[in-house]
């Protein structure tokens, strides 16, 4: 009997109006069973050229469209995303293996960023500043960049794309998107809805393109001078290839790369709340979020009790087919991820770690090509090399501390700097954690876990996380170029700095 996910995928694609470029270059597959869903044809060189040319042509029309009018496109897209939320979520479940609630949450992030971007379309503020010269005015104005290249990862097939796209579009840019090879169908559906929105509001043709291919296509985009910005979400390894390539041609990047996110649990913490916060962040999306909690730094006085309770909570997790709506933990993306998890656990135990629970593969008989695992907790004697490495699987390393500053130092002593949290009811500890001397991450939370950020804030992190910021706050500025304008409305020509000439 074929798994119902095959029919769900077909009907979701049909509902969203997708024509899949069928072929045999790449294969859409589902990690739920490990089966193939359909074969796809990769974007040809000629198609890539057409995409880049039309994205360039559309840009000249789009930048002349007033920003609030550009907002209408994103508003309509948000409406369609709301209407087809279940279909898109079904595709995300099929391709990324997310449980329905998390898949719907991902689509909700798209809808939310559309709302934000519509408002933003009337708020692309520049400043004015006093000129030192009489009869002069200084101001800054913000202008679109051009076609923006967006590269996204399998674990969030659609939300980071939407953070980039909704904002980049209202800023006046056009879009060329290369999704992960693991989640091409979700991408095609998302793009089809944007196409419908563009038609509905009469936006210029050629504003947005999906290109399909492997990493060589990402390299080609990184080298392409016609893409002034590359915004890439994925591993630090990927970023270390994209970053220098784009920099070599003086292009701009927004990099959102790996995390190695930790929570500090202090003795004053509300432990019931902390338990839930840690469990969701460590286990949600089967440990495959860039914001997944991978390290727990817990005060030695409460370590034993808290860890015991956490192990118990892990024992109640339902692991299995996410499409049934009955599991909390879906599959890993593929066998390579499982091997990575096994190798990390072996390295951790070789370093003196004690495996407290998890690590076993489950449902292997039913689904030999799918990789479901029991999330693992490992007590570590210290932060060894494997703890400092991001393994994209549900492994939580537990370390203890005595003094808060020691915990913060341990917290920051990893190459990555995406998300972080402290659980405490002591205001001094909480404030220290979010102060200059505290967490060095782009996201620092108090009494919530490391994952599940809202779109209103700027999203991204420091160090090997890449430094980029996407989504809310003033992240829009990355998608625009700034011009400083000095306007002389006098009849004189005084020079700045008192310089005399002619
Ligand atoms: C990612 O894993 O690439 O904060 C993005 C979160 C989500 C986004 C994660 N809002 O967990």
From TrEMBL:
Aldehyde dehydrogenase domain location: 26-482
Keyword set includes NAD: yes
EC number assigned by the record: 1.2.1.3
Active site: 256
Coiled-coil zones: none
Keywords: NAD, Oxidoreductase
CDD domains membership: ALDH_F7_AASADH
Top-level division of the source organism's lineage: Bacteria
PROSITE patterns: ALDEHYDE_DEHYDR_GLU
GO molecular function: aldehyde dehydrogenase (NAD+) activity
PANTHER family: ALPHA-AMINOADIPIC SEMIALDEHYDE DEHYDROGENASE
Subunit structure, interactors included: Homotetramer.
Protein family per UniProt: Belongs to the aldehyde dehydrogenase family.
Designated name of the protein: aldehyde dehydrogenase (NAD(+))
Organism, as annotated: Kytococcus sedentarius (strain ATCC 14392 / DSM 20547 / JCM 11482 / CCUG 33030 / NBRC 15357 / NCTC 11040 / CCM 314 / 541) (Micrococcus sedentarius)
